[in-house]
Amino acid sequence: MIIGYARVSTDGQTLDAQQAALKAAGVERTYAEKISGAKTDRKALASAIRNLGPGDVLIVTRLDRLARSTRDLLNVLAAISDVGASFKSLSDQWADTTTPHGRLMLTVLGGLAEFERSLILARTSEGRKRAQARGVRFGRKPKLSAFQIKEALARREAGETLTDIGRTFGVSHSTISRL
Predict the structure, then answer these.
(1) Counting Cβ atoms within 10 Å, is residue 175 exposed (0-12), middle (13-18) or buried (19+)?
(2) Would you say residue 52 has pLDDT above 90?
């Protein structure tokens, strides 16, 4: 089955031109919505992907109707591929996973995105190590100071309930129990 996806960003825009182009391309069923492409939670797109099966093709008129970023595009293409379907953009000839050339282009694009991600992870890790060497502490700030912890432990040892101790410091009894 050939499934189409059409999207415009605002209510003032019309889906007519996209739907006509999809119909001319042989689309049997079109999913359409008026929502910003920056939003990744698009109900019509999710529904279109959910209704794809092995051998089906999802077609869009232009690539920017499907995704706004490389990462978003690769996530959508992975979801399409996971169900055994293919993808095709009418105006972007290279974005066509039904052909060997299109699969090659998207594989290269995916490889570049993966390489970029690994560089980001390496830089982040190096920055984290430098910060730790300078004494920077990561994670959530403690709810109680060292003095408060010492006092809470002493009160607990004296037999006071977790709830009463927690109320005194403005924390839950669970926080006190973890001390």
Answers:
(1) middle
(2) yes
66 and 151 both lie in a single domain:
no
In angstroms, the CA 65 to CA 163 distance is 55
Segments forming the whole domain that contains residue 46: 2-109
Name the β-bridge partners of 7: 33
- Per-residue pLDDT tens digits for 127-177: 999 999 999 988 888 889 999 999 999 999 999 999 999 999 999 999 999
Among 109, 133, 157, give the residue marking a domain's end.
109
141 inside domain: no
pTM equals 0.60
Shared domain check, 152 and 102: no
Radius of gyration of the chain from its Cα atoms, rounded to whole angstroms = 27
* CATH classification at residue 29: 3.40.50.1390
Q: Which of 9, 81, 86, 177 is catalytic?
A: 9
Catalytic status, residue 9: yes
Residue 110: HSE in the Cβ half-sphere, 13 Å Cα cutoff: 14
Half-sphere exposure of 173 (CA within 13 A, CB side): 6
Per-residue tokens: 64:
């920017």
Q: Tell me if 129 is assigned to some domain.
A: no
Q: What is the DSSP string of 108-139?
A: HHHHHHHHHHHHHHHHHHHHHHHHHHTT---S
